[in-house]
Amino acid sequence: MEIIKTVDLSKRYGALSAVDSINLTINKGEIFGLLGPNGAGKTTTLMMLSSLLKPTSGTATVNGFDVLKQSEQVRESIGMVFQDPSSDPVLSAYDNLKLHALLYDVPLKSIDAKISQVLSLVDLEKRKHDLVKTFSGGMRRRMEIARGLLHEPRIFFLDEPTLGLDPQTRDHIWQYIKTLAEKIQMTIILTTHYMEEAEKLCDRIAIIDQGKIVALDSPANLIRAIGGDIVQLRGVVNTDAVKKLPFVRDIRESDHSYYLSVENAAQNLQKLLAVAGTIDFVAVHSPDLKDVFLRYTGRAMREEEGDLAGHLRNINRVLERK
Amino acid sequence: MNIKKKLKAIYALWYREFKVFLREKSRVVSAVFLPLFWYFIFGGGIGSIGAVNSSVSGNYQHFIFPGFLAMTVIFTALFNGAYMIWDKKIDFLKEVLIAPPSRTTIFVGKMIGGMTDALMQAYILLFIGIFLGIPFTPRSILLSMVILAILAAGLVSIGLIIGSFMESPEGFGLISSFIIYPLFLLSGALYPLDKLPGWLKTLTRIDPVTYAVDALRHVIIGVSSMPLAFDVSVVIGFDIVLIVAGTWAFNRMKL
Ligand SMILES: Nc1ncnc2c1ncn2[C@@H]1O[C@H](COP(=O)(O)OP(=O)(O)OP(=O)(O)O)[C@@H](O)[C@H]1O
Ligand SMILES: [Mg+2]
């Protein structure tokens, strides 16, 4: 059963098409990943689906409600973890969550218990009464994830929720979210820069670049579609010669490396290296989601990219505030 | 959305405003002492010249005390809108706007929160007035509190409207001082309204605060230029216009 449907959803900022005629259908209970390089339009898409941002054209229905005409019902159906911190730093974690519970009409009697429950999930129960400004970046992130879960939304949007969290915490949080999602049939739409995370978690993935969906399928299908093996080459590569080889399907450059999609690398590697030029480094692996990403966007998805973008944004915000 | 949900949302927004208020004790202190300071400078200084005494029965300090109550409300109520800018900067506004309550409900919650802030400070000043020898009675204290609340509703709305449009604290400061000073200086807070030249008289009658000050004077020292019911009706009219404008401003506000 479909729970989100977009029809030619678009957002323009002047001449820039941030989101360009996106058509998507997401099913109930699905964990759906939105992947794309910085500036691809992921956040803009989530903002339109949550009715905070008005589309320039096109529309979407969320939980059966029109984001333009029934925005209140849409907002009742969703929870959101924003990409940037959005809690009040001079309130305690408890007060931030209490405010949230009241805004989302959580029954008064169960508010305190609920708050304790979600805060213990993210290991912050002991810091409950501390002001958020005394938290580390990761702690604040965890608190905001807990806050988003507090009212058990039908649809949960997470915009790079685990950015900057250590792997253990990430696993822990995802496990909980998955369990809860199954229990209450929650649908999850997330963006992430961690490819293994997306591969492991998501039922389906849409790769979005410059506002357009360039690929959409299950991680396994996306990887299978690439096929063969990936050969990574570093050095002075004679790309013209390499491209002429019949068993080389695709070649992409990223970050001083060439990534070749090669049929049967075990057999063909010798032939490849014979014409490839002066090679300092060779590696062969089966394709994974990173290679899918590179294929469709022409850019390597590196986890640091997300981290770096996050850091730059934080620096910007600090500067702006001064 | 049903009424209980609305009230919970309003309570939520009020709760936050109140927490912030309790935390920023320096603001409370300055907001109370600044008017007191002016009060003694003006009351002592101008009062001693005797320039305005002829039309003011008795004590000039008693005469201007209602004006300083209004001043406290003007400053704190309008300044409250600056928190909107802060909320935008820390992205907290997103968290509030993505929640189910309508923009109208959010405006009302913010307005009541801002009123609480402004009124707590005005009421503290009012009680200090008792010890300064202002001739208060229980009835006049109660009526003053009501009049101040009615005044605060409209003024807080002005602050919130400005805050909903502005992006920077500097911009907010600039625009709000363009409003704060005329509102205060034209309100007759410092001088009697009756003997003004024609053009100035017209200006004072455009200022809604004039009517609140006149009403306060009526109940506190028994001196006024206009009937109490008229004064209060004008201020309520001012509230209605600004609350409507405020809900409009919140509904059109983009992130
Ligand atoms: N308010 C705005 N005004 C002008 N342009 C904007 C605005 N918000 C976003 N954009 C532009 O829209 C495009 C998409 O931005 P968006 O934030 O959706 O990207 P994203 O995929 O979330 O990127 P990231 O991975 O960095 O978070 C970018 O080119 C961005 O510059
Ligand atoms: Mg983003």
Structure in a nutshell:
By secondary structure, chain A is α/β, with parallel strands linked by helices. Helix content of chain A is 40%, strand content 29%. Chain A folds into 2 domains: 2-222, P-loop containing nucleotide triphosphate hydrolases (Rossmann fold, 3-Layer(aba) Sandwich), CATH 3.40.50.300; 228-286, 2-Layer Sandwich (Alpha-Beta Plaits).
Written description of the protein model:
The complex is a heterodimer of chains A (322) and B (255). Chain A is of the alpha/beta class. Chain A has 2 domains: 2-222, Rossmann fold; 228-286, Lrp/AsnC effector binding domain/regulation of amino acid metabolism (RAM) domain (Alpha-Beta Plaits, 2-Layer Sandwich). Chain A is built from 12 helices and 14 strands. Chain A has a 6-stranded mixed beta sheet with strand order 6-7-8-3-9-10, with helices on both faces. In chain A, helix 3 (93-103) packs parallel to helix 5 (137-149). Chain A starts with a strand and ends with a helix. Chain B has one domain (3-252). Chain B is built from 11 helices and no strands. Chain B has helices at residues 3-23, 25-49, 60-80, 82-89, 92-97, 103-131, 138-165, 169-185, 198-206, 208-221, 228-252. The chains are: A alpha/beta (322), B mainly alpha (255). Chain A binds chain B through residues 47, 50-53, 72, 75-76, 78, 80, 82, 84-91, 95, 98-100, 102-105, 108, 317, 320-321, and chain B through 1, 5, 8-9, 11-12, 15-16, 19-20, 23, 89-92, 94-102, 255.
